[in-house]
Write a structure and sequence with these properties.
Helix content is about 50%, strand content about 15%. It has a four-stranded mixed β-sheet.
Length: about 210
Amino acid sequence: MIRTAAILGLFLTAAACEREAGQELNRRATFGESTLNNSAVMSGERSYAIQLANRFAKEVPNTINFDFDSTRLDQAARAVLDRQAHWIKQFPEVRFRVFGHTDAVGSNAYNKSLGLRRARAAVNYLVSRGISRNRLEAVVSFGETQPLIPTPERERRNRRTVTEVSGFLKRHPQVLDGKYAQIIYREYLESAVPESTLSSQQSLSRSLQ
């Protein structure tokens, strides 16, 4: 029985993580967003943004976690944000949002505030790594309302921020020209050295051994 519950818990966690990629782009428009979303759907921009959001979530970790009642970025969180910043720099036409979350311990109002402070901590770190604040469109807090692990207890996996593609910079030349496909299919280089160069260097190194 315990083993079955554990397996079910892991399955639910994986499913929740998958839902987070692009979820804000898929949600229904509220208030003044309706016209914007309808226009984006008509132009195909929203579809490209969803594809790029899914790609971002696959190529780099999009989530960092926090200690209880803390906004401090530990070494693991900073390492993830460094990878995010590296990816973001290679896609200068794209805007991002950072969403803050908490576990269920504490009041709704406090957790809403805590989630926002966590999102701001992540954004500030990305800015310190050379990302323009104008590209980090907004920081939003969901507080305790979207747990990965449904529990009233302390749960580190629920104490997180999620970085997500939110759209494109309207005034960027590539966007003005409608070259969305060129953006979303652009090669992402995990290091500053192109893969072809790395392969050549590795071959030369082997020949000298």
